[in-house]
Amino acid sequence: MSINRPLDSLSDMAVFARVVEAGSFSAAARQLGLTPSAVSRQVARLEGALRVRLLERTTRKLKLTDGGAAAYSRCQSMVAAAREVWALSDTHTGDPTGMVRMSMPKAVGRQLVHPLVLSFLQKYPQVDVQLLITDRVVDLFQDPIDLALRVTDTPPPGLAGRPLAPLPHMVCASPQYLAAHGHPAHPRDLEQHACIYLGEDERDRHWRFERGAEAATVAVRGRYVANHSEVRLEAALHHLGIASLPGFAARAALQSGALVQVLPDWDHKTAYAGMAWLLYAPNRFLPAKLRVWIDHLVQGFEHVV
Q: What would you report as the CA-atom Rg of the chain, rounded to the nearest whole angstrom?
């Protein structure tokens, strides 16, 4: 085989990988700035060169054939390698430049990451920052982002990552509420209290606790449900009940005495508690803009958590 044939197909391979990641020819075309017909022609040309059918096309979706799956994994590696080559120029330049795009959960983004952005922008005037603040799990390989912050004790395989800090949850109430309604001594006592919970999922009203080998789950209820930690915090400060809160959201109120931790000898287990991980696609040559942003976050989380 002539060496020119694989080289001539590099563009088609990259387009094929983007079609798979985007899920359709039209979505890939929008991302690439091409027409759907042009994208379709490039994939067809690659199939012709390989003499392998890569995609099963239906009216609703695309499906990889066995040969297509094998080709995609290799094309994806090729695209990743190309990104590493381009990153070399940034890695060896004196000043970090470009846009850093990062996703994170709402409360973490608003209360922990956002306060760190100003000092970063002042320190690195040639780097821009875009925060995607969403509780949706963003795909680092398909979505146009560089990094993702996720709160989990089991980071997904296939990604590089840095642990930033543990983010526990706790239940808190105002001294006035507790004076009027009593202090729960055991998680089951919460059944008799007004509780302020997340409410995005039925499981959010089933609060789980652990104390050593002992575990307890209680179905809570209350008149106020809110899927934002700052709203739940404010409700607790207004004596509306016992709120489930991230530790970082409750910290200032606990320090001032405006709130009191309830059941402090129990660990409050939720799907939103765990280690904050900074995740990114494996890349031996991280661009300078990402390296300085990662270092800035690691240092910042030492002080804000």
A: 25
Beta bridge partners of 134: none
Q: Strands, E, within the chain: which ranges?
A: 55-57, 62-64, 98-104, 127-133, 147-151, 160-167, 169-173, 195-196, 206-211, 214-219, 242-246, 260-262, 267-269, 274-280
Question: Residue 48, Cα to own-chain centre: how many angstroms?
Answer: 39
CA–CA gap between residue 164 and residue 138 (Å, rounded): 19
Q: In residues, how long is the chain?
A: 305
- Contacts of residue 276, Cβ cutoff 8 Å, sequence gap at least 6: 108, 112, 149, 150, 151, 163, 164, 165, 166, 167, 301, 305
Are 168 and 273 in contact by the 8 Å Cβ rule? The answer is: yes
Give the residue among 245, 305, 107, 138 at the shortest CA–CA distance from 297.
Answer: 305
The span from the first CA to the last CA of the chain, in angstroms, equals 58
Q: Phi and psi dihedrals of 277, rounded to 5?
A: -110, 135
* 125 close to 97: Cβ distance less than 8 angstroms: no
Beta strand segments in 139-205, E? 147-151, 160-167, 169-173, 195-196
Helix (H) or strand (E) segment spanning residue 272: none
Per-residue pLDDT of the chain (305 residues; tens, 9 = 90+): 455 666 778 889 889 988 888 888 888 888 888 898 999 999 999 999 888 899 987 666 788 898 888 888 888 878 777 766 665 555 555 579 999 999 999 999 999 999 999 999 999 999 999 999 988 888 887 778 899 999 998 888 888 889 999 999 999 999 999 999 999 999 999 999 999 999 888 889 999 999 999 999 999 999 999 999 999 999 999 999 999 999 999 999 999 999 999 999 999 999 889 999 999 988 766 889 999 999 999 999 987 66
Strands 267-269 and 214-219: unpaired
